[in-house]
Amino acid sequence: YIYLRGIINHKSNKMSQSRRSFIAALAMGTTGAAFPIFKEAENLDLNLEFSEDEISKANEWVSKVKGTKKMVYDGTTFNKGFPVHWNWAYYQSNIDMKVPESEITTISVFRAMGILPAFKSALWKKYKFGEFFKVNDPKTGKPSLRNFVDAPQKGDLPGGGVTGISEMLEKGSLFCVCGVATKIISGIFAKKMNLDADEVYQDFKNHIIDGIQIVPTGVWALGEVQAKGCGYIYAGG
What we know:
Largest sheet: 5 strands, parallel
Number of strands: 5
Shape: globular
Number of helices: 11
Mean pLDDT: 88
């Protein structure tokens, strides 16, 4: 964790292949689902550095953690929307227990192969996220062309849940998406579609749901919020 913080805050115009691979491995994880993607990422020539402004905004996002009831959900995969649904469940459980809203912080970190909840439906449709990430639309049973965890309808979330990302953002919940994973996956799409990697990455960034913060890496975000007293629950399935 300390080493990772040093990497993120180190100012350099160049990044060695071994260092790039190390950060990519941290971002994508070592699960069976992520391994093929990581192998593809090793063949991409991507700039995995982040600007001082981006780092500053990420730190500002972390500073919003508040209260005595704090929980972070680690969303490494889509997992039927549980990284979002459990965010609401913890919040609502504390509200039901008469805990003041000012004392509650719920956080979802979208990283590795779990970044797709962070993006608007237009991006899902454009790049066929449902097919790539193997996520089916609960309404049709076919690869989803919409982000049904943002503003879910009845039947979209487990257990009949209908509270999604946008509503939880209004309640003060925090959501972030891993920047390195976003660069890697957008780079893979760019290569497959013979497009410019920087342009596709910018397209991804432009379609992040308003209020969701892009952070250098998801593991960095997990470490920072836990250092501020958050409990941890793995939500990747």
